[in-house]
Design brief:
This protein has about 100 residues and is mainly α. It is about 80% helix and about 0% strand. It is built from 4 helices and no strands. It has helices spanning about 5-20, 25-30, 35-55, 60-95. α1 crosses α3 (about 35-55). The longest helix is centred in the last third of the chain and has 36 residues, at about 60-95. The N and C termini lie far apart (about 75 Å).
Length: about 100
């Protein structure tokens, strides 16, 4: 008999994948869910969001927002690394000038 999952649990798994950018493999290991199940839930969520957006164009597509949030988080993380590098470089060159 297949295991039954609550909608809240499915949403949590989808958010881990789409919004936090976790790999399917890491989710599979942590939650003991098949890769195919995770893919199916993500695809179903994407289809639901697309359908909602088509029914109400003024309503934002939640799946797209999650993906954009992930992209922006990764971009911010990269910029923070660049800033840290530049601070270290500036400190290094400031020492050289003295």
């Amino acid at each position: 008999m297949p295991q039954s999952y609550t909608p809240e649990f499915k949403e949590k798994i989808v958010r881990l994948r789409l919004e936090e950018g976790r790999t399917i493999h890491s989710i599979t290991i942590e939650y003991d869910i098949s890769k195919e199940t995770i893919r199916r839930w993500c695809n179903e969520f994407n289809k639901e969001c697309q359908a909602k957006s088509l029914q109400n164009p003024s309503c934002a597509n939640e799946a797209e927002i999650m993906k954009e949030n992930l992209r922006l988080r990764r971009e911010l993380e990269e910029k923070e690394k660049e800033i840290l590098f530049l601070k270290k470089a500036a400190a290094f060159f400031a020492k050289e000038i003295d």
